[in-house]
Design a protein that fits this description.
alpha/beta; Rossmann fold; 10 helices; 8 strands; 16% strand
Amino acid sequence: MTAKVVLVPGLGLGPESYAPTLRYLEAPYEVMTLPGYGARANQDDDLHTEALAERLTERLTGQQESAVLVGHSASCQIVVAAALNHPQLVKALILVAPSGDVRASTWPTLASRWMRSAIWDPPRHVPTLTRQYFRTSFSSMARAMDAARHYDLAAAIPGLKVPTVVLRSKHDRLCPPRWNQALGDLAHGEAWTLPTGSHLPGLTNGRELAAFIQRYAGVYKNG
């Protein structure tokens, strides 16, 4: 049976960030936004990773089958926390361009890595990214990032009990090759680098990302 796919946008992004991937996805899916991750945060919202993971799993509870969870960048930490706390709800994890390295989590380091990644992004993506960031709001993004950068993904990920694939694109500096491989090893899963793109594989590598998701969701195609 094909599992449902639940995709959580990255920091500040919305459903549009997965649009090129969803065009190729032949599995039932839902994009779930969270405060700071596609939705504007209220002042009293708890934006720490564990709190957002509980919000996510509350929305998963009641589904008939476990789901494949897809996270991007900082939302990878949210789907990992959800899988650790509620493994019965999760069939597999797809971690796309994961951040979460506490050794490189200072604001100057994050800003430098983001800029060195962004120069590889096609200019045509600027309008849609701008709309998504303004909708989420920069204050929500700053609060969410300040919480996310203290979550130690490398310490958490060995506790996973679900199949996991970690992938990045060639020019991504927020998720460098060694970090990507380390997470794959710690999860006893797969680690891959896509041959093109930077920190936005959902936009730039839609066909390839969809193929990974479908394999873990149980979509098998002839030929």
